[in-house]
């Protein structure tokens, strides 16, 4: 019951966020670009490349939850019960980063003055992808709950795979592709900000900055990435 409830809470929040964000904006440009590669039927191509592929990924990533739900004795509160409480804490940390990171991003996107700028405040000051980091923590937390019953340990590759997708696969690299061309301050943002795990930002010297950023430096006391519009 616990792992089911936590999964439902996570899913409802994410579905609500994506639904509100996407309402009235048409198809996701990433899917449009993918469908443009279809040589024949776009429906068949979408079924194969999107629905079946994502369905298989969802099945594999959710294996810890599936195993835990079908354990007749439930989660192992005895013996490995400490993993349950660690899992809940990790899940809560993930929900915090995912929820607050999305709220910060939504507020930034809705600000007319944010055009051409880089979000580098709040959680985004410490990681370029607080929502992705939070998502990974959520699935590690759920997996730790499943690990409290020994069959769940067999699914350890599921959170590893999810973390890889977010940090090295279709998550961060896809999102950051060509970002420096659309937002000139993004190159410096990459240089001073952790790509995934939250860490204190680096302080850049003038020689560390990109040539483009040095050419369009903001007045002293103002952040180059936050207060300079894209040319």
What does this structure look like?
It is built from 12 helices and no strands. The chain has 231 residues and is mainly alpha-helical. The model is unreliable at 212-231 (pLDDT under 50). The protein starts with a helix and ends with a helix.
Write the layout of secondary structure elements.
Blueprint: H1 2-22, H2 29-35, H3 42-61, H4 63-69, H5 81-109, H6 130-147, H7 157-167, H8 172-176, H9 179-182, H10 186-192, H11 211-215, H12 224-227
| Main sheet overview | none
Q: Would you tell me the structural class of the helices and strands?
A: mainly alpha
Overall pLDDT, averaged? Answer: 81
- Residues in helices, as a percent range: 55-70%
Please give a handful of descriptors for the protein shown.
single chain, 0% strand, disordered C terminus, mainly alpha, 12 helices, 231 residues
Concise description?
With 231 residues, this protein is mainly alpha-helical. Helix content is 60%, strand content 0%. The termini are far apart.
């Amino acid at each position: 019951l616990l792992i089911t409830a936590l999964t439902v809470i996570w899913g409802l929040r994410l579905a609500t966020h994506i639904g509100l964000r996407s309402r009235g904006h048409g198809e996701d440009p990433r899917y449009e670009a993918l469908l443009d590669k279809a040589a024949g039927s776009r429906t068949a191509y979408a079924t194969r490349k999107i629905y079946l592929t994502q369905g298989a990924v969802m099945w594999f990533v959710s294996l810890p939850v599936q195993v835990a739900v079908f354990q007749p004795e439930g989660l192992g509160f005895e013996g490995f019960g400490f993993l349950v409480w660690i899992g809940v804490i990790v899940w809560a940390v993930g929900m915090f980063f995912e929820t607050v990171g999305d709220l910060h991003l939504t507020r930034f996107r809705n600000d007319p003055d944010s055009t051409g700028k880089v979000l580098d405040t709040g959680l985004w000051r410490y990681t370029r992808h607080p929502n992705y980091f939070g998502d990974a923590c959520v699935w590690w937390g759920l997996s730790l709950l499943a690990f409290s019953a020994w069959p769940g340990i067999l699914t350890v590759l599921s959170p590893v795979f999810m973390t890889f997708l977010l940090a090295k696969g279709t998550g961060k690299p896809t999102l950051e592709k060509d970002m420096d061309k659309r937002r000139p301050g993004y190159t410096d943002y990459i240089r001073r900000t952790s790509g995934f795990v939250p860490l204190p930002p680096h302080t850049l010297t003038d020689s560390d900055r990109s040539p483009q950023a040095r050419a369009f430096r903001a007045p002293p006391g103002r952040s180059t990435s936050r207060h300079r519009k894209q040319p």
